[in-house]
Please model this.
Amino acid sequence: MKGTILLEGLEIECIVGIHPHERSEPQKLFVDVELDRDFDAAQATEDVEHTVDYVDLAQALTDLAVRGRFRLIETFAERAAEMIIETFRADRVGLEVKKPAAVPRARWAAVKVERFA
Model:
């Protein structure tokens, strides 16, 4: 049985951006993730080893963003989707990365990606 795991509004503070002030001061990103995978083993055993530990997923995304010091949220989104497919055995990943401080008077600028294993 296929299912979708959601993680919404993950707040990550990291260096991200192209402008000089963005390269020296951390800022917030908000990340929403959908990942599809098989739920059969997880529901049969109720063992987290057969699914995704949400805390591990959040930590992996945070570590990637902080270590990456990305200039573009597009790059972070692509690398995050690749990592989720490989590390968390996802069949499909939908990812949205929101950058609130990107544009004055806008709630945020954002990118969305969808990738398949």
Q: What stands out?
A: The chain has one domain: 2-116.
